[in-house]
Design brief:
With 337 residues, the protein is of the alpha+beta class. The protein has helices spanning 2-15, 25-28, 31-34, 36-39, 55-69, 74-90, 92-95, 99-105, 110-114, 138-165, 169-196, 205-223, 239-251, 313-331, and strands at residues 45-52, 117-118, 122-124, 129-137, 226-231, 255-256, 263-276, 279-292, 297-304, 308-310. The protein is flat and about 75 Å long.
């Protein structure tokens, strides 16, 4: 009987959570996780919960859910931001005095684009999971979106005006391409703002009308731009370079024509053979020049590539030319991509 009495305090101690190492997991979970609506009411916030094996993965899941609210994907958005920033940075002197320019160049992630904030992550020991909540303050983000839209539309119209004043077709199309890239981002911001505040839709009807015109205006330029391709080297092994450039023109909406072309693309490939004890190497380079009908240069591209080797000289050439092809596919005519 004495032994049983001694066990009673031990049983009481083990059953009380406060004596067993603190509050239960349910009690210690933050309010934003257990009662999200109370902590972040849907009338004031757009919010999404995320969980993962790390705090970073939890944030990523929450951000992806936020993007679905706006009917967009973070990877597509990231590309649009990157392309727009490349253009704005390249012409920074045109925009550096604008507050909107500063806002745009500071967008470094999808979270920055959406103006998302995160609460401190919570670690659930029992489930071995991290939890977080991503949220957007509707009132604050509306003014930020409005400012960015205004800047982008001013930039789009600046490029459209430059395009109209430019007499050289190739350069005019380049300006219009920049307007098109910025239009994609402006359209997404307008969509987001109207999603948050439907009453704002009428305010942006004119901006959306301008955005809709840009692809048509660019298409009209490209329709009048025909190209002939001329290789300085006529050996058959260089045919893949010719085909690659022709494919790039087609993908960008240009016309390939040998009859009275508006532009001529002259391509010169240099391949230097090098022999070492370990095998045969080829060091290649390319020079590409585009001229108009007045033989004025409107575009040039050149690059030297690292030497490559193969089991024989023929394979070395194949690999060297493949390097040129891949580079052209990624970088040629970047002004129109």
């Amino acid at each position: 009987m004495k032994k049983n009495l001694l066990l009673i305090p031990f049983l009481i101690f083990s059953l009380l959570p406060c004596f067993a190492g603190g509050r239960s997991e349910k009690e210690s979970a933050p309010l934003w996780l257990t009662d999200t609506e109370k902590e972040f009411p849907s009338g004031k916030y757009i919010r999404a919960l995320g969980e993962g094996s790390s705090a970073k993965l939890a944030q990523s899941e929450a951000l992806s859910t936020i993007s679905l609210y706006f009917d967009t994907k973070t990877d597509i958005l990231t590309l649009a931001v990157k392309e727009a920033q490349s253009i704005l940075s390249g012409d920074s002197e045109m925009f550096s005095s604008s507050q909107g320019f500063t806002q745009m160049v500071e967008v470094s992630s999808s979270a920055d684009f959406f103006c998302v904030s995160f609460v401190d992550s919570y670690y659930d020991k029992q489930r071995d999971k991290f939890h977080t909540l991503a949220y957007i303050d509707k009132a604050k983000v509306s003014s930020i979106y409005s400012s960015r839209i205004s800047f982008l539309m001013d930039s789009i119209n600046s490029y459209r005006n430059l395009s109209k004043r430019e007499t050289e077709l190739f350069r005019a199309a380049g300006y219009m391409h920049k307007a098109e890239v910025l239009s994609k981002l402006a359209s997404q911001y307008i969509q987001n703002l109207v999603t948050i505040n439907p009453d704002a839709a009428p305010k942006y009807s004119e901006s959306l009308a301008v955005i809709a015109k840009v692809p048509e205006e660019l298409g009209a330029f490209k329709k009048d731009m025909s190209f002939d391709i001329r290789m300085a080297q006529t050996e058959k092994r260089y045919d893949p370079i010719f085909s690659t450039v022709a494919n790039i023109l087609e993908q960008q909406g240009f016309t390939f024509s040998v009859t009275n072309p508006k532009y001529v693309i002259v391509i010169s490939i240099s391949c230097v053979e090098e022999t070492y004890d370990v095998g045969e190497f080829v060091r290649s380079s390319i020079e590409l020049l585009i001229t108009n009908q007045e033989t004025e240069s409107v575009y040039s591209y050149s690059k030297a590539y690292p030497r490559v080797s193969g089991k024989d000289l023929s394979q070395s050439y194949t690999r060297a030319l493949f390097s040129i092809q891949k580079d052209l596919e990624e970088n040629l005519l970047s002004e129109y991509r």
